[in-house]
Specification:
The protein is of the alpha+beta class. The chain contains 2 helices and 5 strands; from the N terminus they run αββββαβ.
């Protein structure tokens, strides 16, 4: 907690990164509302064989600015994808909002797709 506060006080970015559950793409039923003039036919189960592909959401939360940034990948959840996503965050957000940053603190957990087991 002290390290995080030191970074924030120095004006350096502190971000939390996380990869979420892979989602299948296709005409699958999802909770929520969609307003259309005509009914849309969907599959009631999301079987992988019915999917047109999959997407892997990878997100960053900027603690100081209270904002999020999401990249979507279609390949496997790898360290290369995480690094590419971090680079995209830095180019599109980090360098703009933290032009004088000397370092970056990245907070990660060991659960989900980042499992350390």
């Amino acid at each position: 907690t002290q390290l995080k506060q030191d970074y924030l006080d120095a004006g350096n970015p502190v971000i939390s990164m996380d990869t979420k559950k892979k989602e299948l793409l296709g005409t699958f039923y999802r909770n929520g509302s969609l307003y259309t003039q005509a009914a849309i036919q969907t599959n009631d189960h999301d079987f992988p064989s019915s999917a047109t592909g999959s997407v892997i959401p990878h997100g960053f939360y900027d603690l100081k600015r209270n904002t999020g940034y999401i990249t979507l990948g279609t390949s496997h959840d790898t360290s290369e994808f995480a690094c590419d996503s971090l680079f995209q965050w830095w180019v599109n957000e980090g360098i703009i909002h933290y032009p004088k940053a000397k370092s970056l603190l990245i907070l990660c957990d060991g659960g989900g797709s980042n499992s350390s087991r």
